[in-house]
Design a protein that fits this description.
The radius of gyration is 22 Å and the shape is globular. The strands form five sheets. The chain has a seven-stranded mixed sheet. It has a five-stranded parallel sheet with strand order 10-2-1-14-20, covered by helices on one side. Strands 5-9-6 form a three-stranded antiparallel sheet. Helix 1 packs parallel to helix 8. It is built from 14 helices and 20 strands. A hairpin with a 2-residue loop joins strand 3 and strand 4. It is α/β, with parallel strands linked by helices.
Length: about 500
């Protein structure tokens, strides 16, 4: 097969599509605007410590689980250096109003056991919650690497997470604990569909893992697979235009004027950004308006901290900490009330003792909070200076966030050697989203179908993929990549190979 596929973006979606199609015999070229491949899998080094820019842990990697099967089929599973997180507490949900930690265990038995110990009178509600999560996940064929001719939109797609949980129990604390790691999908109380909550949290309950020395190893491994099949990955190559001729995409034009021709094209960047590249009436105005009207998820402020050696104990758990008793209002803040929430992620290093070397702290931040610097741009490829006032803004936010962490972990500040920060502008510039959105298009249970973006476009040889198609996250984007690639290869045969079943 000599058919050429050109892919825009080297995030998990672009690399996954590239690996699947290269393995199937297509000639693959991936174009990435940044110096480093990987999208949210990118890492960077400060004082010899590796920090993740986006992905801090992953679910579903136990043998036989969905993501394991996909990675194993592609031939990268054996190359990954991963560590299983605390089986009894991969996530800890904390509230500053009490001194308790509510632990999420791996495996539904452990998950239920932990919560029932914390809420002994709520056993019925906890069991019903777990049963419903599992039912929802079982009802989505591709999530389980299966196809069915009888699949139809489940009634679960019409339910929202907050009110479903409230229907199980009147215990407000339990309600908030069950939704306590909703920053995994930037949950919004009156919008987030129950299916999003279920599909995301289920993968972590199944199994939760950290990457040793960062998640960029996934990108490197996929890159290796693509190149082993003759594929090409070009960095510092920003696509500006998709040229359409006679209802088909003909070639891409890059920022430096180069042209890339192909038989098929896949864009893994935000659909609204993709549409800006297309000057053709084939894409109807109504479709453009629909895509451009979709609301994006929030962005974040992040601190990556180098710690003084042997000062701060390592934890094999993540912490989701709330300064409010309502886990759904973390995005509703002003300068005075920020932050209402923060998460703490420990970095996993190959040579680690009982002490942590690096920690990431994340809090929500709206793009509007940094919009006064929106005219600036700063990446490794295109360096720029946002000015002293921006540096001061970041410093004030970082110190305030560190103060909050100090309340939870007394003495933490004294353990800090140095730190770097990221804002919505950082995510915008490196990830290519207009507003630094961390999870792409926001899902809304009131109009679930509207936020589902088909991988097919009106241009017959142009397809979409990435975190804005169906579901975000490594697992979600991997599944979306299967859907996108099914336009070029037989999905049934592909799933049979992934499941190691005869075609």
């Amino acid at each position: 097969m000599n058919q050429k596929v050109v892919i825009i973006g080297s995030g998990i979606g672009g690399l996954m599509c590239g690996a699947i199609l290269a393995k199937a015999g297509y000639s693959v070229t991936i174009l990435e605007m940044n110096k480093q491949i990987g999208g949210t899998l990118q890492t960077y080094v400060r004082e010899r410590h590796i920090f993740d820019s986006g992905v801090h842990y992953v679910g579903g990697l136990d043998k036989g689980q969905t993501l394991y099967k996909i990675f194993d089929y592609l031939g990268i599973m054996q190359d990954l250096k991963i560590v299983k997180m605390d089986v009894t507490a991969f996530d800890k949900i904390c509230f500053h109003s009490d001194n308790k930690e509510y632990n999420f265990g791996q495996g539904y038995d452990q998950f239920k056991k932990n919560l029932i110990e914390s809420f002994p009178s709520e056993e019925k509600a906890i069991i019903e919650y777990c049963n419903t999560i599992q039912k929802i996940c079982a009802s989505v064929p591709l999530y389980n690497l299966k196809l069915t001719e009888n699949f139809r939109i489940s009634s679960y797609y019409e339910l929202d997470t907050k009110h479903f949980i409230a229907s199980l129990t009147s215990n407000i604390r339990l309600q908030n604990v069950l939704a306590g790691n909703n920053p995994l999908y930037a949950g919004v109380g009156d919008k987030t569909p129950l299916y999003v909550h279920a599909l995301v949290i289920n993968s972590y309950i199944e199994s939760a893992w950290r990457f040793v020395n960062g998640g960029s190893q996934i990108a490197r491994s996929l890159c290796k697979i693509i190149r082993s099949h003759g594929g090409i990955i070009k960095t510092r190559t920003k696509v500006n235009k998709i040229h359409v001729d006679q209802e088909l995409a003909h070639h891409l034009v890059t920022e430096d004027g180069n042209k890339f021709f192909g038989d098929y094209f896949i864009s893994t960047i935000h659909p609204s950004q993709t549409l800006k590249m297309i000057d053709s009436n084939i894409i109807k105005l109504s479709y453009r308006k629909r895509i451009n009207s979709l609301e994006n998820s929030t962005s974040s402020f992040m601190i990556n901290i180098n710690l003084i050696p042997n000062t701060f104990k390592y934890s094999n758990s993540n912490y989701y900490c709330y300064l409010t008793d309502d886990v759904w209002n973390g995005m509703e803040h002003d300068d005075y009330s920020w932050p209402k929430f923060y998460a703490v992620f420990h970095s996993e290093f190959a040579k680690r003792n009982e002490f942590a070397e690096g920690i990431t702290i994340m809090a929500y931040m709206k793009y509007e909070e940094v919009s006064r610097w929106s005219h600036t741009y700063n990446t490794v490829t295109h360096p720029g200076d946002r000015g002293d006032d921006y540096a001061t803004f970041k410093k004030l936010k970082a110190e305030k966030l560190i103060d909050c962490v100090e309340q939870k972990f007394p003495g933490f500040r004294k353990c800090i050697k140095s730190y770097t920060t990221s804002t919505p502008l950082t995510f915008r510039d490196y990830m290519g989203t207009t507003d630094g959105s961390i999870y792409g298009i926001k899902k809304d249970y009131k109009d679930a179908i509207k936020s589902f973006i088909s991988p097919r476009t009106k241009i017959n040889n142009l397809f979409l993929s990435g975190q804005n198609i169906n579901l975000h996250g490594i697992l979600g984007v991997s599944i979306s990549s299967l859907v996108s690639c099914s336009s070029l290869i037989n999905l049934t045969d592909l799933l049979n190979k992934i499941n190691n079943e005869p075609s």
